[in-house]
Design goal:
This protein has 133 residues and is an all-alpha fold. The protein is built from four helices and no strands. It has one domain (3-127).
Length: 133
């Protein structure tokens, strides 16, 4: 498995653990009230699981599993590393914006995520070919 995929999947698993932990805290707080501010973790929970876990896991797996053609088998891997960095930074910025009341983090975080997906699409696009061509 390529190193980029390994690190993207590891980061996805880290986001999964953090997202599930935030959800568990909110669920515990629902049964045994600890602090009303724990509900501020709802956006963090959703962001970590949907973008941090699912999207990153899908992109890391796609980089690994799509056919590799030509002498540069994986393309320009620097695009993938930049996408990985941007996606994780964007997830953290968006996830921290709600509980810390930092609304200024939301737009830059979303822009980083969009740019990360665009970079991965650019990297993976040439590897998608019609069958038997």
């Amino acid at each position: 498995m390529p190193r980029l995929s390994v690190w993207m999947l590891r980061a996805a698993l880290l986001h999964f653990g953090l997202g599930v932990s935030a959800g568990a805290l909110m669920l515990w707080n629902k049964g045994v009230p600890l602090d009303a501010r724990l509900w501020l973790l709802l956006n963090t929970h959703v962001e970590m699981l949907l973008v941090g876990w699912m999207l990153q896991f899908a992109l890391g797996t796609a980089f690994w599993i799509l056919p590799r053609l030509g002498e540069r088998r994986y393309g320009d891997v620097r695009l993938g590393w930049a996408a990985c960095l941007l996606l994780n930074t964007g997830v953290l910025l968006v996830a921290l914006s709600a509980p810390l009341n930092l609304t200024g983090f939301l737009l830059p975080g979303r822009l980083m995520q969009i740019l990360a997906v665009a970079l991965m699409a650019r990297l993976l696009w040439p590897r998608v070919k019609a069958f038997a061509t």
